[in-house]
Amino acid sequence: MFKAKIIFNIQFTFFLLLILGFSLGTPNYSTAEEEQPVLTYNWIPQFYGKLKGETKLLYTRSFARSMLRFVDIDDDGDDDLFVGKADGRIAFFHNQGSTATPFFKLITEDLVVIHEGVDKQSNAILIQTILDVGNNAAPEFVDIDNDGDFDLLIGSKDGHIFHYENRGNKLSPRFFRKTPIYMGLKFGGNSVPRLADVNGDRTYDLLVGTGSGKIHIFFNSGMAQEAVFCQAFKVSDPPDKRCKFQPELVADIAPQANAVPELVDWDQDNDLDLVVGKSNGKINYYLNTGNNFAPLWSLKSRHFQFIDGGGSVAPTFHDLNQDGFPELFLGTSSSKIIYYENHEVLLDLLRKIP
């Protein structure tokens, strides 16, 4: 189903543009006098760029263990790109092209968020700071409170899921930290949250991959405006009276580790199938043999499309060229990101990339 088109390394860049920082990526201590070079990326062959006349790599830190999420964060009709990284931070690429011809420009390697605090006089203050979850940031964007804009959940190396509420709007987001332990959920390490309505009740359900290789699902016991995800509980004594769903173990990729789930309707039967990136560079594929009201994922392949990214991989599907068939982006344990273009619907095999 895929034809390999491009392998690119985000260590290399393609064009350079000097502009002022974008609002999502500029801490409050930045000034116009501290104008920083901002990099422009496009999905074409790479080369070294020039910065102040010197040929060098045009990035500051590694994009290792990249976790990609595409989302139209500014409601301009095309999807922008966020990349979670091993350093615990999130890079933001603004799409300055179009839906048919995307053109991603690196705005910041360090997404800025807002924390609420108090000053020495106990007055409430807002503090702009760089988002940092420690290590292995795994972002997910979803309108979890049904207010028309995207909120942010982030998995982390310590297994917690951070929750940032968007208190701006769909045109100009402002992410406020609500909690570093979303819904009180804790996992052993390397949590990767993914949200989608998998049971047809018009609320988002939560799928979480973990460092141990397990993938858990938490069906939403709440409403679209207020999600409720419950840990395992006694029916006679639930932690929240709204709890009606127990968490379930969807899959376990042991002896491999670092499960990175991604939901996609691979067989185009109107329900969500599951692919899971693994620590050995390969991908498991689980066919949804249920339906979009009662999902049931069955393992069909431990080496999906014969892909091998080498080391831990993080799959992300996105229809980059708007042809109705999603492409595959594969974050890796290095700074390399692998891109597979989706061409033929009925082609089962993919030639291995050298």
**Structure classification:** mainly beta
- Major sheet summary line: 6 strands, antiparallel
Uncertain residue ranges: 3-59, 345-354
- Our count of helices gives 0
Strand proportion, as a percent range, falls in 35-45%
As a percent range, the share of helical residues equals: under 10%
Reported CATH architecture: 5 Propeller
- SSE string, helices as H and strands as E: EEEEEEEEEEEEEEEEEEEEEEEEEE
Largest sheet strand order: 2-3-9-8-7-6
Kindly, what is the distance between the CA atoms of the first and last residues, rounded to a whole number of angstroms?
Answer: 18 Å
Count up the domains. 1
Tell me the CATH topology: Tachylectin-2, Chain A
Q: What do the pLDDT scores average to?
A: 82
* Secondary structure: number of strands: 26
Cα Rg: 20 Å
CATH hierarchy, class: Mainly Beta
Oligomer: single chain
The coarse overall form would be: globular
Features:
354 residues; disordered C terminus; Tachylectin-2, Chain A; 26 strands
Could you please describe the fold and organization of this structure?
The chain is mainly β and 354 residues long. It is built from no helices and 26 strands. The strands form 7 sheets. The protein has a 6-stranded antiparallel sheet with strand order 2-3-9-8-7-6, with no helix packed on it. Strand 6 and strand 7 form a beta hairpin. It is globular. The model is unreliable at 3-59 and 345-354 (pLDDT under 50).
Give the gist of this structure.
This protein has strands at 2-9, 15-18, 37-41, 49-51, 54-56, 67-71, 80-84, 90-95, 104-108, 112-118, 124-130, 138-142, 151-155, 161-166, 175-179, 192-196, 205-209, 214-218, 248-252, 260-264, 273-277, 283-288, 297-301, 314-318, 327-331, 336-342.
